[in-house]
Amino acid sequence: MRVQRQIWGHIPLLHITPNQDAEVALPTVVFFHGHMSAKEHNLHYAYQLAEKGLRVILPDAHLHGERSEGLDEVQISLRFWEIVLTSIEELAFLHKELHKRELVTGEPGIGGTSMGGITTLGAMTVYPWIQAAAVMMGAGNYVELAQAQMAQYESRGFQLPISAEERERMLSTLAIFDSGRNKPKFNGRPIYFWHGEQDVTVPFEPTYRLFKELKNQYEAVPEKINFTREREAGHAVSRNGMLEATDWLAKYLIE
Fold first, then answer.
1. What pairs with residue 55 in β-bridges?
2. Contact of 248 with 190, CB cutoff 8 Å
3. If DSSP codes are grouped into helix, strand and coil, which group holds residue 245?
4. 32, 52, 80, 112: which could form a disulfide with 250 (CB 3.0–4.6 Å)?
């Protein structure tokens, strides 16, 4: 496995390939990290994927890793949706670069953990070129999740720095990427979910509800949607989940 630290445009990333295939076109995955994490924290996913013959791009999200601006956790949390939407927008640039550099065979898949899983589900609603996805303890109910986050902050006595008009505008924007409101856009593409039932950071039930709703649209291709639930797991992906997710992406990208 070869790991290169690169900057594409303004995005710092780790570029991982099998040793002998750094410059040739390969099946490719763009994998997003979680909130308050960084690109290096998903190298175990990249290792498994590279071992199977895939190229992996691990970008740093806005305000994270090498893009840190010295903000504390509360300041970054208040900009959560700005970060998610920036990652979705930047995925279009990464996609263009992969093709311009002739590094990808076919079209890439995507995946992510926590905030990265949330990003993955939003991206699926706007980019029909995505070939397969792995959502690790993510959520697609953007509007519902944002409303719950704001209510939680306000219950703690935080004065959110947005007006009522700005709040409505934000929720209208998030609705564009909300999986529950855009289910037809998944269009039968392979998608793997992993979620721990004891997760209190990204609640289990809304994601499982989305899976059950999506399943109705996958009746012709039921093998292309999977939900692995672990009864005792919280907000941390098990080794089994990581291995299943990387097997899933390899299966549908190497075909």
1. 28
2. yes
3. helix
4. 52
Under DSSP, the state recorded for 21 is G
| HSE-CB for 101 with a 13 A CA cutoff | 18
pLDDT tens digits for 235-251? Answer: 999 999 999 999 999 99
Q: What is the CATH number of the domain that holds 138?
A: 3.40.50.1820
pLDDT grade for 160, boundaries at 50, 70 and 90: confident
| pLDDT, tens digit, 9 for 90 and up, residues 189-203 | 999 999 999 999 999
Number of domains composing the chain: 1
Instruction: Tell me if the pTM is above 0.70.
Output: yes
Specify which residues 4 forms β-bridges with: 15
Residue-number span of the structural domain to which 85 is assigned: 2-254
Phi, psi of 234 (to 5 degrees): -105, -135
End-to-end CA distance of the chain: 21
20-27: long-range contacts, CB 8 A cutoff, minimum separation 24:
21/53, 21/55, 25/102, 25/103, 25/104, 25/105, 26/53, 26/54, 26/55, 26/103, 26/104, 26/105, 27/53, 27/54, 27/55, 27/104, 27/105, 27/106, 27/108, 27/109, 27/250, 27/253, 27/254
The residue type of 94 is: L
C-alpha to C-alpha distance for 135 and 36, rounded to whole angstroms: 18
Tokens of 232: 């005792």
Read off the DSSP letter of residue 12: E
What sign results for the dihedral spanned by CA atoms 36, 154, 161, 81?
positive
In sequence order, the 6+-apart residues with CB closer than 8 A to the CB of 72 are: none
